[in-house]
Amino acid sequence: MKKALVISGGGSKGAFAGGIVEHLMKDQQKKYDIFLGSSTGSLMVSHLALGMVDELKIIYTSVNQNKIFSNSPFVIRNVNGEKVISINHLHTLWNFLKGRKTFGESKNLLKLIKNNITEKMYAKIKDEEKEVVVVVSNISSNEVEYKSIKDCSYNDFCDWIWASCNYVPFMSLLVKNGHQYADGGFGSLVPIRKAIMLGAKEIDVIILETEVTQVNRLPSKNPFSLLFDVFEFMLGRIESHNISIGKLYAREHDVKLNLYYTPTVLTTNSLIFDKIKMAKWWELGYNYAKNKVVDS
Hints:
Elements: E1 2-7, H1 14-27, E2 34-38, H2 40-49, H3 53-60, H4 65-68, E3 74-79, E4 82-87, H5 89-97, H6 107-116, H7 119-127, E5 131-138, E6 143-148, H8 154-165, E7 174-176, E8 179-182, H9 192-197, E9 200-207, H10 223-252, E10 256-261, H11 275-291
Parallel strand pairs: 1-2, 1-9, 2-5, 9-10
Antiparallel strand pairs: 3-4, 5-6, 5-8, 7-8
């Protein structure tokens, strides 16, 4: 019986998912045949396919804005103890003058991916015949695409992971094979149905949002915060649709789903990478999974 691990998108909240997986894979000794990730989930699946939980924890508890953005479109300020973003007019203007299509650039993230997902790891995953799949959104063809490591060269697979994480228009747009690609979460934030199509009969699904909406957003202060709020609204609808379809498909195919949500709102801006907070979220995820009765 094939078992799958599905990790949703969620930016910096991926640290919480890492804590859950630490409990599942190290404490419960769970083994998976299929690893499927969207957005931040795509960053995690290669390490998890090789059981490299500790190495993944180092990445997610040491990352910061500079490791993600080569040209950050944000200014982050502390207001009453909370981090608030506003537009970095100089950086954004520079991107426009250079003829780029996005407000910011995330080329440092691609470097981070290649530094931490090595060719040796890529070869080992293929040798062990693990099914590792990442989700990308093809903006040109208006389709969701699922990229399996089995079908990709090393450099192509790194590109697809990068594309899956690129929350445009704030991050880079991947142009590849004549098409434009962006964040996998725009099309499939929680790819449960795809895991079932790949043959999974039991799936652990990590969803980096609360099960019930707990956010009542304050009025937007600037165009950037308004754009974030609009995107979050749309992604919330995509997530709800993905989960509903996934549950229906699971019932039709007699698949067991184990759902893990975040118990509280971790952040209202998942593009702020604060290593101190992310270290706390990792521990929160670990303790949450340890004490949780799984929802099905």
